[in-house]
Amino acid sequence: MVLSRSSSRTYLRLSILSALGLFAVNTAMAATPEVTNTNDSEIPQVELDKIVVTATRTPTKTSNVIAQTRVIDSEELQRYQGQTVTDVLKNQPGINITQSGGMGTTSNFYMRGYDSKQVLVLIDGIRYSSISTGTPSLNLLSADQIDRIEILYGASGSSIYGSDAMGGVIQIFTKGSRVDQSNVSTTIGYGSHNHYQVGVTGQLKNDTSSLSLGVSRNKTDGFNAIANSDAFDYNADDDGFESTNASLGLQHKLSDSLSAGLSALYSDSTTDIDSAGALFPNAYSDQKNGSANAFIQHQTLLTTTKLSYGQSIDKLTSHDNNSINYQDGSKFNTTQEQARLESQINAQPGTVTVGAEWLSQKLNASDVLDFSSGSATQTAYHPDDRTVKSAFVGYQLADTYYDLQANYRVDDNSQYGNESTYNVGAAMRPLDGIRIGASYATGFRAPTFNDLYYPGYSNPDLKPETSKNTEVFVEYNKGNQISRLTGYHTDVEDLIGGNTNTGEAKIKGISLTSDWRMDSFLFGLGYDYLDAKNKTASSPNYNNDLVYRPQNSGLIYIGYQQPTFNVRLEAKHTDDRFSDVANQTKLDSYTLVNLSGSVYLAPNLRANLRVDNLTDENYTLSNQFGTEYATDGINYFTSLTYNWF
Question: Could you tell me the maximum CA-CA distance found in the chain, to the nearest angstrom?
């Protein structure tokens, strides 16, 4: 069934009223003994001071980490049923998104003034991105197969993880990394644009082992991705998306000191795309994305040693009129293999981390069309493989009165030689609940395979981009609130553009976050001021804003939580920003208001509702070469989840 926009709005309003009615009925029922006795009568506790692994490689409370971090846990991810990791990130402080249409279409994100090529993405510790473009396909990963997401802002991750972490690190943990009890859950959902989802997750746990297996199916008719399709020779049709997603987690305790495990996340998806001209009206792209990781770990009172091996894939086949052969499609298949040996040593005080890493990156591409001569020429694209051998050492101290962190890493890349990075940071607590600190970090980004080898635009002599980053902060963490004010300043050199290392940029900003819990109420806010400028002296765009970097952005939310239901209202504002390096095309500011909530209809049956863009804001996320990409109006997704314990 396909509804008109007015009919969809009517249906949506009825869905919202029904859900709110369920909230009201359930609130009344919560006072009766029958429901109180079958559910936990205590209000669920929201832990503001969470444990994070990404920032130091060791489990550490966020209140002891020097860098700014954020954890999106499994409870928060429940609010994103039917959505992707991109949808989750765009509602986080300090992150802005561009996207060329609806679900499954190409997207990019910006954090601390850097784009997604300069922010490292990991899945269970394994690198995940396309090594041709350098961008990770987070728009294809389903949120329902994920346990939590950790965000590390700033460049401190470079000396821990190596290349591509100048702007930060985003690590995705698959379901099964933590299994509390044996259970089976089934979810069915429906939303705008004939969007449906079905999924099942089974988890088994005993004294020595845990197993988690999940699978889901998403499909939507989508909407027309080109907002100004009448002005161009594009297909003015809806652009659908469908995906099959799976996750696997297995952990086993071999003895008191030895354990092993594996994890995997996989997505097989198809996205309808708009192709210039009417020759191929049914253009589409197939993508296969994911990661797998296996490890064995030995633990004693003084050391924890872990050996891991993993692989990630990013495989894209596009069938459109720009392909060499429409039926075969144009192919860009990325494979990354990674092995790591690391050991954490209890140094009393503090923890010392030492390790070594091996990374192999390969790209198998079909012939491409080279337009550098002014006309399309079919050209072979067979880039060289590369390997990276790395060694790292770090020290961390999490104390009652002060925190310390220092890291150093060396990467030996087969394509451009050695690159070393380091990070030092310290924080102290002069007063109860008050923490102040500072850090300095260097970072770099390796050239992508397209930077080095793409026909007509290649330069195999490119060097890595490099950065120097300074950060200071003051934090208040006491009782029911955590608030942090962070200031940062970054100089970036050897930026790659036009197949040269001539670019420079200066990025500075302020980030404020505050999260509160008061009885049943949760509320918080975030504000980011960003000044990201092109500082290439020889460029006609000197001192222009970097593209898609808004100067001001912020969010605010309020939630109410009870044992049998919860509801949350949030708003995020994004300032004006330019979509071109000459700063001639400005995208208007916008504010999105979203509503989400869930209610237990029975002890094991939960209903979820999410409504995005409640005010039906008309806004633009991307404008490239005069093509304005469309965004969705008011839209919803509702689902039912049943748990067998």
Answer: 78
pLDDT digits (tens, 9 = 90+) for 101-156: 999 999 999 999 999 999 999 999 999 999 999 999 999 999 999 999 999 999 99
CB distance 345 to 351 below 8 Å: yes
Torsion from C-alpha of 27, 29, 34, 40, nearest 10 degrees:
-10
* d(C-alpha 438, C-alpha 436), whole Å: 7
Which residue type does 296 have? I
* Neighbouring C-alpha atoms within 13 Å toward the C-beta of 617: 18
Structural domains of the chain, ranges and CATH numbers in brackets = 42-564+571-585 (2.40.170.20)
Confidence of residue 366 (pLDDT cuts 50, 70, 90): confident
C-alpha 140/C-alpha 146 separation (Å) is: 13
Q: Residues near 527 by Cβ (< 8 Å), separated by ≥ 6? A: 93, 510, 511, 512, 552, 553, 554
Mean pLDDT is lowest, of 41-45, 124-128, 419-423, for: 41-45
Going by C-alpha positions, the residue among 103, 464, 21 that lies closest to residue 270 is: 103
Measured between alpha carbons, how far is residue 11 from residues 3, 24, 443, 616 in Å? 9, 20, 50, 15
Burial class (CB in 10 A: 0-12, 13-18, 19+), 40: exposed
- Judged on CB neighbours under 10 Å (0-12, 13-18, 19+), 129 is buried
pTM for this entry: 0.91
Closest CA to 138 of 160, 115, 162: 115
Q: Are strands 120-123 and 168-174 parallel, antiparallel or unpaired?
A: parallel
Neighbours of 2 (CB within 10 A): 9
- What is the length of the chain? 645
